[in-house]
Write a structure and sequence with these properties.
Blueprint: H1 3-24, H2 27-46
C-alpha cells in the first residue's frame, strides 16, 4: 500500500466518523470502542 492510498483511506475513515458523530452523536462510538478493546484483549489471549 502506498502512502497516498493510506492517507486517502485514513481521511475517508475520519470523514465518515465525523459525519456519523455530527448526525448521531457519540454514544454508539463509545460502545463500539469498548467492544473493540474487548476483542483485542480476547485476541491477545490466543496469542
Amino acid at each position: 500500500m502506498t502512502d497516498r492510498i493510506a492517507l486517502g483511506l485514513a481521511l475517508a475513515v475520519l470523514a465518515a466518523a465525523g459525519i456519523d458523530v455530527a448526525l448521531a452523536g457519540t454514544d454508539h462510538l463509545l460502545y463500539l470502542g469498548t467492544k473493540f478493546v474487548d476483542l483485542v484483549d480476547y485476541i491477545a489471549f490466543w496469542r
